[in-house]
Amino acid sequence: MRPDKKIKALKNRIRKNQKDYKAYIAIGDIYQQYGNFNGAIQAYQRALKIKPNDEINLNRLGEAFWRAKRYPEALGQFKKALKVNPKYAYAHLNLGKAFGLVNDKANAIAHTRFAVKLFRKNRDKNGEAKAKQSMNQLYK
Fold first, then answer.
1. What is the spatial distance between Cα 97 and Cα 15, in angstroms, rounded to a whole number?
2. pLDDT in tens, 30-47
3. 3-state class of 20 per DSSP?
4. What is the pTM of this model?
């Protein structure tokens, strides 16, 4: 199914149930996949109005802000995700990447190293591989 048709179907789902935050998240994911970061931001924010303490969506919103080059807002969302769940590995990984880009190596390494441990504990091989790759880039 084409992205515009998927979005139309998701919007129809929302018309039937305005509390369907998962539909907003799915719309945000589609927008982000196709480079419409402002659309993704709006969709994720709508989902957060319905379910404000969703660390996964807070992290996704942070990623969309980051990709839209709205860095302070991105960092704020990653930190909010960690306030909701201090052991959310993807938020630690994203904070590590962000700190690495602003040359704060100590914080970058600390967050990335913690992400590796969390991914390993959660048996998330894909996440662990991403975190290890980020760690290797930090040591270059």
1. 37
2. 999 999 999 999 999 999
3. coil
4. 0.89
